[in-house]
Amino acid sequence: MQHLGKTVITHWVVKLVLRASLGSTAQPVCAIITHWVLKLVLRAVLGSTAQPVCAIITHWVVKLVLRASLGSTAQPVCAIITHWMVKLVLRASLGSTAQPVCAIITHWVLKLVLRAVLGSTAQPVCAIITHWVLKLVLRAVLGSTAFGSQARDTLLPLRCVSEDAVTSPSAPHRRATVCLGVLCVLLLAGLVTTCVFNIIQVSQHSTLLALYTQERSAHQTLRVAKMSLERENEDLAQQRDELNTTLRFITQFSKIPAKAFCQLIDGEIHCEPCLRGWIQYGSNCYFFYTGPYTSWLSWHSSRQHCLKMEADLVIIDNIEEQEFINQNAPNYFDEYHGYWIGLSLTNEKKWVWTNGSVLDTGFWIGQPQISYGACVLSKTGDVTLQSWTVNTCQMLNRWICEMNAVPWPRPIKHRAPDQQG
Predict the structure, then answer these.
(1) Would you say 165 and 9 are in contact if contact means Cβ atoms under 8 Å apart?
(2) Cα dihedral sign, 120-125-129-130
(3) N or C: which end of the chain has fewer CB within 10 A?
(4) Domain span including residue 22
(5) E strand intervals along 191-271
(6) Number of domains in the chain
């Protein structure tokens, strides 16, 4: 009994392992294992009387395996197996008296198989089989009284077969057993082959899936790296353009060193778009000279001072710039003084800016009096916009310089000399 208990436990463990490894494909293998374990238990408990029950179990397992492997096409084969199993059980139970019943079962199975294989064309063959089976049954039940003299001759070959079957009842039993055993072996071999093939396919599928996962992960990594490189390339291209623009501006300032715009703070170079003391407005820088009376200059001298700083007297292009100039140029000394701007009168009696462009719209305090002079001052007073007036170019005044703001690139990290090496 202890051996039986170990066998049952081993059976359940093996089924559990197969289901965990193969999943739903383990059902046929589990059925075969259950079949052999049940037969082993029945033989140990019932002895030789367990043969019919074992035959039924074998029949059930073989049908289950066939349906799992072949699907709906397994019906004819299952019918044949059921036929042999029923005949085997009947012969084991009834002996020689089971011959008529076995003949009827054989007749039914043959008709089922023929209809499954041939379809509607199997009707004549089925009629012939039914004819022979009926004569065989009548002969076995009624004996010689069942037929006339003509039928006796027809049944002579069948009678010989029937008498042989009666005299040697064990021969068909042996043949059925051998055939069923061979069929089980073939089915088991086919099932094992199918399982091995499925295991190989699952292994190959798992390998391909792992490779696909790795390739997909590598593709994602490369895609992220590509996007990062593209962003870095865009940043480098933008920085290159900024450096080129900055270089073009710096080369214009031949008299002003770069350190006039930049200073080193905490190991980093910080550059301003305007020189120290200048005010940025838009893309330009403005210098409002507010020194004492002794340093005031004429229009031409004021312009020379601006040119030394790579700038020029301010050119006012629009009303917003005019408002900015008035807000940052405080009133001083008296009502006659102001700030020189880059506008003057030419010999052709045209008001021209220092860059050569002709004045379009002005912000005059009244009509300009050419007899007063040829250079223009901007005076801040109560009127916000109208602040221009004309005076002699030799008059000493303060002035306003203008230059382009330097478009420095993003802050550049730089190690201080005492931090290097």
Answers:
(1) no
(2) positive
(3) C
(4) 2-203
(5) 262-265, 268-271
(6) 2
